[in-house]
Amino acid sequence: MSFGESAAIYNTTRQSYANEVIDRVTDILGVTKRHSILDIGCGTGIATRQLAARGFQMVGTDVDADMIEEARSVGQAGTYQVADASHLDFLDAEFDGATAFGAFHWFSDEASVRSIQRVLRGGAAFVVINKNDAGDFRESIVEIVSRHVALGSARPKLNYQPAKTLDAFGFDAVEEVVIPTIEHLSPTQTIAHVRSMRLWEEVPLSLHDMIEAELRSYVTDRLDALGTFQRPLTVAIVWGRRR
Q1: pLDDT tens-place string over residues 138-150
Q2: What domains sit in the chain, N to C, each tagged with a CATH number?
Q3: The pTM of the whole model exceeds 0.85
């Protein structure tokens, strides 16, 4: 799986996580600042930088070389390397904690979970964070794009249950909290957000203008009094600790 050319716009269209979410993740990690945290599936490093700003020594990995290149170009936090979650090239028990922001559904298989466990010290937390639409935004996007393209990856989180996965593959004390939030996007940001989604990689270039026009109509009809598009979300935080 590769996000390809969308990596170039991903960093400028995807919003950072609310302070309340980062506060909770920091508390769960429960380690002293300057300790080493592995951010798996880091993309362009949005959340990696947020945790680095809290004082953690961050290492970000992603299977997509384009995403890693973008993260390195932004800088500001730790180191980055291309790596498959199922084959993490680090020492046993090298990290004091690990995170996966908006990415674990891509590598929630047993081989990847075992690989993550191996690089964590005993008792260290692995924290999985996902933004989930509380409204109809994603389903509306899928419906619009599907009018023109037979999508193969419209719903990557189908049957995705991170808490059950962590528990099944040996993490202890698995817990979950949900934090509601709202993202406020300009019309341009909303369209760009769709273009940064994995499903957009399946849209032929010849259909971009047509589909973007339909998306723009959808967004325009739903702007608030300030001219912004409100995207209600629930942010699910799931974590467990290595035995």
Answers
A1: 999 999 999 999 9
A2: 4-241 (3.40.50.150)
A3: yes
